[in-house]
Amino acid sequence: MILGFDPGRQKCGIAVMAAGGEVSLHRVVSSDSAIATIESLCQEFPINLLVMGDRTSSKEWKQKLLDAGWEPEKIAMVDENYSTVEACDRYWQMYPAKGLWRLVPQGMRQPPKPVDDIVAIILIERYLAKQATA
Angle 116-133/83-94 helices, nearest 10 degrees? Predict the structure, then answer.
């Protein structure tokens, strides 16, 4: 299984995906609890790789993961350009608008909750796509 990690200064997105592409879990956690959450998920799931975004404070987060015992070869950095925009679009696919909100064009809607967890899913998908072409 692969753990996707979208690091941030205040909140982080986390997702767990099986090799077949099935998402087992996705959630947004506070930055303060991110490492503990990752450690807990590693006890719950057979995670063998952590894929994380390469932007917001990623070097600091990678060092925190290494300090927590992660092996460098078990951490893969992925380009996260436009991942938040993509995650907003994916949000509406996962949770279609209801009622009068359906009449508002998707580009004018903002998801009602953070999409960092969906970004984590997208980061895993980008990693897998890159591996498939390599």
Answer: 110
**Would you say 51 and 127 are in contact if contact means Cβ atoms under 8 Å apart?**
yes
State mean pLDDT over 73-99.
92
What pLDDT is attached to residue 102? Answer: 79
Q: Residue 106 pLDDT more than 80?
A: no
Return d(Cα 124, Cα 90) in angstroms, integer.
Answer: 14
Spatial separation of the C-alpha atoms in residues 122 and 128, rounded to whole Å: 10
Burial (CB < 10 A; 0-12, 13-18, 19+), residue 88, is middle
Residues 6+ apart with CB under 8 A from 82: none
Which pLDDT band, with edges at 50, 70 and 90, does 45 fall under?
A: very high
Rg for the chain, CA atoms, rounded: 15
Say if CB 18 and CB 41 are below 8 A apart. Answer: no
Return the amino acid letter for 104: V
Tell me which residue has tokens 């508002």.
104
Q: Indicate the SS3 state at residue 19.
A: coil
How distant is the alpha carbon of residue 24 from its chain centre? 12
